[in-house]
Amino acid sequence: VQETIVAERVVFQGRSLRVLERDIQLSESKTVTWEVLAKGDSVAIVALDDDNFVWLVEEYFGAINERSLCLPKGRVDNGELPAAAAARELREEIGMGGELEHLITMSVSPGYLTQRTEVFLATGLHPDPLPGDEAHHLEIVRIPLSQAIEMCGQGAITEARTIAAIMFAGRKLGC
Amino acid sequence: VQETIVAERVVFQGRSLRVLERDIQLSESKTVTWEVLAKGDSVAIVALDDDNFVWLVEEYFGAINERSLCLPKGRVDNGELPAAAAARELREEIGMGGELEHLITMSVSPGYLTQRTEVFLATGLHPDPLPGDEAHHLEIVRIPLSQAIEMCGQGAITEARTIAAIMFAGRKLGC
Is A86 helix (H, G, I), strand (E, B) or coil? Predict the structure, then answer.
């Protein structure tokens, strides 16, 4: 038997978060009601320059209440293709254009977050800024890829998608 | 200036999800209100047997509406230490005991999810089952670590923490 969503209701709509209640048929005899957070898809970019430095962004995150070093990332706007969103976020967050290659698709928290993140590798970086929409200060940090990989093991890079993408890019590129 | 949470209110309390509204002072002149999903911390385990096979769990996830191959994982109960939660989840989800070593601490979605995940490496696996509390069927899948790493690049393993932990364990163990 394949699991099936048989009904879905919005139970909370806030400023930016929406919670759905889903009735899910798990088997012929069992239906459960689970809550999920409905979030649109996002993109993240491993931006690697010609010196094999990766460009990360340090910013404050309100849920963990601390600053964190992450890949440039952002939402896919309505009707936008993931590759276009990645190109836009790259320009907005680190002021760079580049050639994009799709690396990997990730789920973030598949039990209660609908969001998926498409991760791209950007190479051939060149200045091409676009004003961003961030409410707060972003600090751009440029680190050798090999050092970024070490930082994942030292607690200096903690966001799961950033760790996954950096480790994955490092392996792909033989770092 | 360091960012500071100046006020916090529960704006939604559902069956399993709770949304908070936080007033956050970003600078002397700027305060914003952001919503975050309050979720307790969790653990995940890279369970590696003596043949260098990693034990994963395939289950259905309601938010992405598909089955996904993930590390054994679960919540840290109130008052429980992360290592104790990891030992319990290992027994509940794959029926194994083992020696646990803390590998890495991850945030999942730091902008709107409070949860952190403590990832442990379990070795010396031996049967020691404990009845679990899952509403649905878990399928245990045992895969050579080197093959699991390949699967991360092939779209067969997609959850960010699972990819990050597998790549990280592979690098640590020279796979």
Answer: helix
Dihedral sign for Cα B157, A62, B106, A70, please.
Answer: positive
Q: Name which of B170, B57, B169, B175 is nearest B102 in CA terms.
A: B169
**What stretch of H or E contains B21?**
strand B18-27
With beta carbons under 8 A apart, name residues in chain A contacting B117.
160
Contact (Cβ atoms closer than 8 angstroms) between residue A89 and residue A99: no
Are A34 and B11 a contacting pair at CB < 8 A?
A: no
Please check whether residue B89 is in contact with residue B72, taking contact to mean a CB–CB distance below 8 angstroms. yes
Task: Find out whether A10 and A18 touch, Cβ atoms under 8 Å.
Answer: yes
Nearest CA in chain B to A163: B164
User: Of B3, B17, B68, which has the smallest distance from its Cβ to A37's Cβ?
Assistant: B17
Q: How far is A30 from chain B (nearest CA, A)?
A: 9
The pTM for the full model equals 0.96
- Measure the CA–CA gap between A157 and A70, rounded to whole angstroms: 7
Alpha-carbon torsion, ordered B137, B169, B82, B84, to 10 deg: 70
CA distance A73 to B110: 12
**For chain A, which residues score pLDDT lower than 70?**
1, 133-136
Contacts of residue B135, Cβ cutoff 8 Å, sequence gap at least 6: A26, A30, A32
Q: What does the DSSP 8-state code read for residue A65?
A: T
DSSP string, B109-158: -TTTB--EEEEEEEEEEEE-------SS--EEEEEEHHHHHHHHHTTS--
For all residues of chain B together, what is the average pLDDT?
Answer: 95
Residue A72 pLDDT: 97
**Can you give the C-alpha Rg of chain A in angstroms?**
18
